[in-house]
């Protein structure tokens, strides 16, 4: 640093380039070789002074001109937040595209802020020269969806229920969602999985095909154009094997509800307990004339049997040769009422006809829309009963697959009709009615 001839002064540059310590003993005009010029200072020559550039607006200004910084944030529609820092404690912030003029030369750094559903670009630093400009460009990209995994409930030997809640779609539409599971701690969509709709919000999923007494892990997943996001991994263990086998060798999962033990699947048997075959009647005219036991497959298609079981007329239900496996029977109307009251109905509600109760039907129905048509109102399956919408047969017509479950009781109403239970995809109650014995309904059995 220099001054007028004959005057004594000295300069000490600190580590901060925006601060200069000056010590001098006489009025002087001072020129800073580091790029700042001091005004004429009328100072008492008998005293020392220490001056700092935090008073820069009063007496220091940059030599050689200023510069311009352009902030270019993409896409424009999200108004991305950012903050910019620079020399001499410069600090500002904004959103979206902006042009900042009259800036001191030096090093500037930009930090890109958080936008929900988007991945921010990396922060960066650039040097700004006098009479020049620099551009900070940042492009946000879609993120994978953000979601949580629901608790695992209604666990049986081979089935369970979970789901998830998608709180952010990541900036792009969720095209598929569900849960995935495996015996390892981090299941992915390459493992077993369900498909349960699209979009954000909560969903329920049914896990099937599990092995009894086995530890599993389940995670909710959601996929958009950026990839697949996962919820937390939730551990659970299927119930130990507790099954019943019919005379044909079909194995059924069971569930304890209150003091009763029920099949958790629809009956598939084609022989009475004594080994006599149950006739498979496919012709509608023949079916409508029957007064003896018979079964059929929905739409006469064996492909439905594994999931939905078979349909039986009431004459097969009441046959003395017994439809149910040994130690089991088709439930009476009173046993259906016992189940319904355990799930929340009053005695008066259980004794009534038509749609009764509040949410007992939802507690019986398998949750989700894998088998039931939307909206599957109120379905939680918290009982573990796993009622499925197997439809029914009326003469030669098959109806309501996906919409409704019709399940016989063994109790006769009159010479033409018998009591049954009806569950519907858009109703959380249970319907108790009597209908023609010649109709083809599903059958569940209860242990003796």
Terminal Cα span = 106 Å
Uncertain spans: 1-17, 19-63
Shape: elongated
What is the helix content?
under 10%
In total, the number of domains comes to 4
Could you tell me the mean pLDDT?
A: 87
- The count of strands amounts to 34
Alpha-carbon Rg, integer: 39 Å
Strand % is 35-45%
Structural class by sheet pairing and helices: mainly beta
Oligomer: single chain
Helix count, DSSP H or I runs of 4 or more residues: 7
Largest sheet: 5 strands, antiparallel
Short descriptors:
448 residues, mainly beta, Immunoglobulin-like, 4 domains, 5-stranded antiparallel sheet, 4-stranded antiparallel sheet, disordered N terminus
General description of the model:
This protein folds into 4 domains: 9-59, no CATH class; 67-142, Immunoglobulin-like (Sandwich); 146-237, Immunoglobulins (Immunoglobulin-like), CATH 2.60.40.10; 243-447, no CATH class. Strands 16, 17, 19, 20 and 21 form a 5-stranded antiparallel sheet that branches. A 4-stranded antiparallel sheet has the order 7-6-9-11, with no helix packed on it. It has a 4-stranded antiparallel sheet with strand order 28-33-32-31. The protein is elongated and about 105 Å long. The chain has 7 helices and 34 strands. With 448 residues, the protein is mainly beta.
């Amino acid at each position: 640093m220099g001054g007028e001839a004959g005057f004594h002064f000295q300069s000490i540059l600190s580590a901060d380039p925006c601060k200069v310590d000056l010590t001098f003993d006489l009025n002087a005009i001072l020129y800073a070789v580091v790029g700042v010029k001091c005004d004429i200072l009328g100072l008492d020559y008998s005293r020392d002074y220490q001056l700092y550039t935090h008073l820069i607006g009063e007496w220091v200004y940059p030599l050689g001109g200023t510069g311009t910084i352009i902030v270019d944030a993409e896409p424009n529609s999200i108004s991305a937040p950012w903050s910019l820092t620079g020399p001499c404690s410069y600090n500002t912030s904004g959103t979206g595209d902006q042009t900042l003029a009259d800036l001191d030369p030096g090093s500037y750094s930009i930090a890109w802020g958080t936008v929900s559903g988007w991945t921010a670009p990396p922060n960066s630093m650039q040097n700004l020269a006098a009479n020049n400009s620099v551009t900070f460009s940042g492009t946000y990209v879609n993120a994978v969806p953000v979601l949580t995994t629901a608790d695992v409930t209604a666990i049986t030997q081979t089935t369970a229920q979970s789901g998830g809640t998608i709180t952010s779609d990541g900036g792009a539409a969720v095209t598929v969602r569900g849960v995935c599971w495996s015996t390892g701690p981090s299941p992915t969509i390459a493992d077993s999985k369900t498909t349960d709709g699209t979009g954000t919000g909560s969903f329920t999923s049914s896990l099937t095909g599990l092995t009894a007494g086995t530890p599993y892990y389940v995670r909710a997943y959601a996929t958009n154009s950026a990839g697949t996001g996962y919820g937390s991994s939730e551990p659970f263990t299927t119930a130990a094997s507790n099954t019943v086998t019919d005379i044909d060798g079909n194995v059924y999962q069971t569930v304890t509800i209150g003091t009763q033990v029920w099949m958790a699947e629809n009956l598939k048997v084609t022989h009475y307990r004594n080994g006599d075959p149950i006739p498979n009647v496919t012709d509608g005219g023949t079916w409508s004339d029957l007064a003896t036991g018979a079964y059929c497959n929905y739409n006469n298609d064996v492909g439905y049997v594994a999931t939905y079981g078979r349909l039986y007329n009431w004459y097969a239900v009441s046959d003395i040769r017994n439809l149910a496996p040994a130690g089991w029977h088709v439930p009476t109307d009173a046993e259906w009422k016992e189940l319904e009251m355990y799930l929340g109905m009053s005695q008066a509600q259980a004794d009534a006809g038509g749609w009764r109760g509040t949410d007992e039907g939802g507690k019986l129905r398998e949750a989700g829309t894998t088998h039931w048509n939307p909206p599957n109102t109120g379905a939680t399956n918290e009982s573990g009963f796993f009622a499925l919408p197997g439809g029914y047969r009326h003469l030669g017509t098959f109806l309501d697959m996906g919409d409704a479950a019709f399940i016989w009781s063994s109790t006769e109403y009159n010479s033409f009709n018998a009591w049954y239970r009806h569950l519907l995809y858009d109703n959380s109650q249970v319907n108790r009615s009597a209908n023609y014995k010649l109709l083809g309904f599903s059958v569940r059995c209860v242990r003796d």
